[in-house]
C-alpha cells in the first residue's frame, strides 16, 4: 500500500511559516501583507474559493480586501480597478478569480496586473523569470506541489517525471520547476500518443488534466510517486462504478450523496501500485491557498 501524501498537513506547515513571517513584519513595525481579491459575477465555485481564501488570510494575519463586481462589468471597468490596485501602496498582492464571466478577457486582465503584485504568478514577466530559473512570483499550485515533494524527501535529480497537462497555470510551470530540480521531464497532453505507456515510464507522475479517474492503476509504474492535481465532480453512476471500483467507501459516499469529488487518478488503484499518492480532496487543493499566501508575504516583503 502506498503512503498518502497529506496535503492538508503540509498546507498547515506552509501557513504556519506565513503566519510567522507576518508576525516578524509586525514586530519590525511594518503593516500586515494585504491581498486584494477581485471576484466578478456569481460563479458558485468561485465564491467558495474566495471564501476559503479569506478564511486562510484571517488565520495567518494577512489582510484580505475583496472587490466584488457584477457579471456584466465592462472590461474597461475591470481594467480600471486593476490599475487602481496596482498603484495602491496598501495592496501587496492582486488575484483576479477565474473563470471570468463571458465577455471579459482573462488574459487581458491577468497581463494588466503589476508583476510585483502578481501573486498567482500568471503574468508573462513572472512566467519568463521561471523559464530562466530566476526568482519571482511563481504559480501557486505547482510551487506548493514542489514544496510537498521536498518535504517528503522525494529526490528529483535524474528522476523520470511525466506531467499530464500543459496549462499555463499548472502543467507547464510544474514541468519547468521539475526540470530546474534536474528531473528528466516529459509533458503529455490530450494529443499524446499511447498515454498509458508514457505514464508507465514515470517515477513521478503529476496529473493536471481535469478528467475524473483518467489515470488507471495499470498506467502507473510500480513504486512511482503520484501527485494528483485534478479536482473533478463526478455525478455519473456508471463512471463512479468504474473509477471507484477499488474504493468501496467512496462509492458508498457517491451512492448516498449522488456526487463526489475526485482527482484525475483512480486513487484506490494507485494506492495498490504507487509508493506515494496525494488524495483528492485533501491533497493538492489545500496546498494552493497556502502557496498563494506564501506569495503574498513574498510580494509584501519585496516591496517593504
Ligand atoms: P486546463 O483545462 O487548462 O488544462 C488541462 C490539460 O489537460 C490540457 O493541457 C490538455 O491538453 C490536457 N488534457 C485534457 N484532456 C486530456 C486527456 N484526455 N488526456 C491527456 N491530457 C489531457 O486545466 P488546468 O487549469 O491545468 O487544471 C487541470 C485540473 O487541475 C482541473 O481538474 C482543475 O480543476 C485542477 N486544478 C486544481 C488546482 C488545485 O488547487 N488542486 C489548481 C488548479 C487546477
Folded structure, characterized:
Helix 2 (44-60) links the parallel strand 2 (34-40) and strand 3. The chain has a 6-stranded parallel sheet, with helices on both faces. It starts with a strand and ends with a helix. It has helices at residues 7-27, 44-60, 75-87, 106-112, 124-131, 140-151, 171-180, 195-200, 237-243, 248-257, 267-273, 284-303, and strands at 3-4, 34-40, 63-69, 93-96, 160-164, 184-188, 204-207, 225-228, 232-234, 260-262, 276-277. The model has no long low-confidence stretch (mean pLDDT 97). Helix 6 crosses helix 7 (171-180) and helix 6 packs across helix 12 (284-303). The protein is an alpha/beta fold and 304 residues long. It folds into 2 domains: 30-114, Leucine Dehydrogenase, chain A, domain 1 (Rossmann fold), CATH 3.40.50; 140-285, NAD(P)-binding Rossmann-like Domain (Rossmann fold, 3-Layer(aba) Sandwich). Helix content is 45%, strand content 15%. It binds nicotinamide-adenine-dinucleotide (NAD). Nicotinamide-adenine-dinucleotide binds next to helix 12. It catalyses: (6R)-5,10-methylene-5,6,7,8-tetrahydrofolate + NADP(+) = (6R)-5,10-methenyltetrahydrofolate + NADPH; (6R)-5,10-methenyltetrahydrofolate + H2O = (6R)-10-formyltetrahydrofolate + H(+). NADP(+) binds at residues 165-167, 231. Residues 139-302 form the Tetrahydrofolate dehydrogenase/cyclohydrolase NAD(P)-binding domain.
Amino acid at each position: 500500500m502506498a503512503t498518502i501524501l497529506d496535503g492538508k498537513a503540509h498546507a498547515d506547515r506552509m501557513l504556519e511559516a506565513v503566519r510567522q513571517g507576518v508576525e516578524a513584519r509586525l514586530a519590525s513595525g511594518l503593516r500586515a501583507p494585504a491581498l486584494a481579491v477581485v471576484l466578478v459575477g456569481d460563479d458558485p465555485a468561485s465564491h467558495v474559493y474566495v471564501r476559503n481564501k479569506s478564511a486562510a488570510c484571517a488565520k495567518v494575519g494577512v489582510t484580505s480586501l475583496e472587490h466584488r463586481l457584477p457579471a456584466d462589468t465592462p472590461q474597461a471597468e475591470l481594467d480600471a480597478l486593476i490599475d487602481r490596485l496596482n498603484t495602491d501602496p496598501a495592496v501587496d498582492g492582486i488575484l483576479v478569480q477565474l473563470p471570468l464571466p463571458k465577455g471579459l478577457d482573462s488574459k487581458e486582465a491577468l497581463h494588466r496586473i503589476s508583476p510585483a503584485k502578481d501573486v498567482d504568478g500568471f503574468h508573462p514577466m513572472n512566467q519568463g523569470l521561471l523559464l530562466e530559473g530566476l526568482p519571482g512570483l511563481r504559480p501557486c499550485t505547482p510551487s506548493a506541489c514542489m514544496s510537498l515533494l521536498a518535504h517528503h524527501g522525494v529526490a528529483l535529480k535524474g528522476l523520470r517525471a511525466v506531467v499530464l497537462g500543459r496549462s499555463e497555470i499548472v502543467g507547464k510551470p510544474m514541468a519547468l520547476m521539475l526540470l530546474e530540480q534536474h528531473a528528466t521531464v516529459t509533458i503529455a497532453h490530450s494529443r499524446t500518443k499511447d498515454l498509458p505507456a508514457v505514464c508507465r515510464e514515470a517515477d513521478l507522475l503529476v496529473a493536471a488534466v481535469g478528467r475524473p479517474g483518467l489515470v488507471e492503476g495499470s498506467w502507473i509504474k510500480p513504486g512511482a510517486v503520484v501527485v494528483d492535481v485534478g479536482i473533478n465532480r463526478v455525478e455519473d453512476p456508471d463512471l463512479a462504478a468504474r473509477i471507484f471500483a477499488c474504493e468501496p467507501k467512496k462509492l458508498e459516499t457517491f451512492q448516498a450523496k449522488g456526487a463526489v469529488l475526485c482527482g484525475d487518478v483512480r486513487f484506490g488503484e494507485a494506492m495498490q501500485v504507487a509508493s506515494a499518492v496525494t488524495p483528492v480532496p485533501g491533497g493538492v487543493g489545500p496546498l494552493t491557498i497556502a502557496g498563494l499566501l506564501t506569495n503574498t508575504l513574498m510580494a509584501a516583503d519585496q516591496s517593504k
